[in-house]
Amino acid sequence: MVKVLAILYDGGEHAVQQPKLLGTTENSLGLKPYCEEQGWEYVVTSSKEGKDSEFQKHIKDADVLITTPFHPGYLTADLIKTAKNLKLCITAGVGSDHIDLNAANERKISVLEVTGSNVVSVAEHVVMSILLLVRNFVPAHEQIMAGDWNVAAIAKDAYDLEAKVIGTLGAGRIGYRVLQRLVPFEPKELLYYDYQSLPADAEKAVNARRVEDLKEFLGQLDVLTINCPLHETTRGIINKETLSYLKKGAWIVNTARGALCVAEDVAAALESGHIAGYAGDVWAQQPAPSDHPWRSMRGPHGNGNGMVAHYSGTTLDAQQRYAAGTKKILDNWRTGSAQTPSDIIVTDGEYATKAYGQREKK
Ligand code: NAI
């Protein structure tokens, strides 16, 4: 019998209040009837850390693993060794760095994601986060909730987005959508840094300029938005040194992956006032520990923190799309039909995408 294991987050009362919360253990991506029809065992759990977790117990004989980046089941090389039957990993969403892709390749386990399923959801969150930092929204709101009224305290750190230089590190599906959405704000310039160039017509449509040197790229920015996957060469790409390339007072929005940034270096840069703000929804470990520096960091005026839990790509609209996409991948696998090529991250021991680093084909 085929065994499908899904690691999802618990919805509790919220899943009852909102049946569209498909990504919860309670609503199980809507896949229970489908798995029952096939006579498959479908195990759904949120318990994912440590050797006594349901994840580590059930991965040993699961054929298919479904995970989401929001409550990631970290499939390490060691766990892959124990997963004797595993053939397919499906990421319900986008971003499969929580799976050791090189170890999956060694075992010829395929890893697929629902490409594009939440890219608009994230791009909208990025634009919102840029605005809330630049306009100093969070302290302004906190002040009102606290019963205070002090315009000067807020306005001294509030700017317009117009005429700023904004750059995306990674100009794929999300990065490009961010650029598209920023055009009406009339920035001074839109820049991007990516080893893959945008097609000329796409570049022209948003009037973006590619900068090939990271230092030169960062040095021009008022706002940095990070939109590349986490892999060997992007881990910690924003660190003490690269932060120093940014102009004093720059703002950073990272909705890509927490581990792209060195947490302590970002917190130090904010606290010293070198950067004016940091916002996003991704953390190197999720759920983030209660003492993570990004929960409490603030700029010298108590400003500049726009962090939230990982939810930008799990809006109810996105959940519908990634639940449907997960079912499609599962059904293609069951029937032996071809998978949508852009959904494939690794298969047959090779990377099928150019987004996870510049790699030579074997
Ligand atoms: P994509 O594959 O369409 O684009 C990624 C781009 O990053 C590619 O153009 C690639 O060449 C570029 N890139 C890779 N390594 C780079 C490097 N070293 N330097 C510069 N550019 C580099 O992916 P998409 O759909 O835009 O998603 C990007 C990432 O966003 C995902 O991998 C995931 O980590 C994150 N994400 C976060 C979500 C959230 O809820 N916060 C939801 C969806 C995705």
Automatic annotation (TrEMBL):
Binding site for NAD(+): R173, I174, D194, P229, L230, H231, E232, T233, T255, D281, H310, Y311, S312, G313
Database matches in Pfam families: 2-Hacid_dh, 2-Hacid_dh_C
Coiled coil: none
Domain D-isomer specific 2-hydroxyacid dehydrogenase NAD-binding: 128-297
Entry EC number(s): 1.17.1.9
Gene Ontology MF, one: oxidoreductase activity, acting on the CH-OH group of donors, NAD or NADP as acceptor
GO (cellular component) term, any one: cytosol
Domain of life the protein comes from: Eukaryota
D-isomer specific 2-hydroxyacid dehydrogenase catalytic domain: residues covered: 33-333
Chief location: cytoplasm
Keywords attached to this entry: Cytoplasm, NAD, Oxidoreductase
Places the protein is found: Cytoplasm
InterPro entries assigned: D-isomer_2_OHA_DH_cat_dom (IPR006139), D-isomer_DH_CS (IPR029753), D-isomer_DH_CS1 (IPR029752), D-isomer_DH_NAD-bd (IPR006140), FDH_NAD-dep (IPR033689), NAD(P)-bd_dom_sf (IPR036291)
Site (Important for catalytic activity): R257, H310
Broad enzyme group: oxidoreductase
Binding site for substrate: V94, N118
Family classification: Belongs to the D-isomer specific 2-hydroxyacid dehydrogenase family. FDH subfamily.
NCBIfam families: PRK07574.1
Subunit comment: Homodimer.
Function: Catalyzes the NAD(+)-dependent oxidation of formate to carbon dioxide. Formate oxidation is the final step in the methanol oxidation pathway in methylotrophic microorganisms. Has a role in the detoxification of exogenous formate in non-methylotrophic organisms.
Protein name stated in the entry: Formate dehydrogenase
Record organism: Leucosporidium creatinivorum
